Task: structure prediction
Amino acid sequence: MHSLIIFASGKGSNAAAIIDYFKKTGQARVSLIVTNKQDAGVLEIANREHIPFLIIDRKTFAETLLQEQLQEHNPSLLVLAGFLWKVPASLVQAFPGKIINIHPALLPAYGGKGMYGQHVHEAVLAAGELQSGITIHKVNEAYDEGATIVQACCPVEKGDTAATLAARIHELEHYFFPRTIEFLLSKS
Ligand code: GRF
Result:
């Protein structure tokens, strides 16, 4: 069975969608959740699902200790699901081609530094875009610049707020993220 490691800084609704999906298919299991926040909602999910977790700080993040801990799980993929730190080059090199991220917009637009969470949706609305969407991409050393794997679009509706647009984007994420992982695992 494939092992997945999820990195998340927030609520963890994508983590939950991935865990639920693979509980049904049995093709993979989430063997570790890594977070940089003591109070991240994703830790509640880890507890509920009895999945081990690791709370990291900036200093140990890039260290070999962390890499060794990750290697132990022999992951097929490292999945960034709302993880706000840049992944250090040493980690990218330790897992070549095996780290993927989800971004709540159609990259290369609305990506890069400062473009996370509500900021992305606010910028999309301010620009008067007619559509937005999600991008699932490989992670390389540059923020939000790895090769695109999948993009999915949704309309921006009249009267949308950052919150209503975020909810529509989350729906796309919860559908496409587990299925994209499934696709990648089937090729590995
Ligand atoms: C998602 O919209 C993801 O695209 C972005 O952060 C959000 C995380 O949401 N990078 P959640 O913690 O999975 O609910």
Summary: The CA atoms of residues 21 and 178 lie 6 Å apart. The helical segments are 13-25, 42-48, 58-61, 64-72, 89-94, 117-126, 162-187. The longest strand covers residues 28-35.
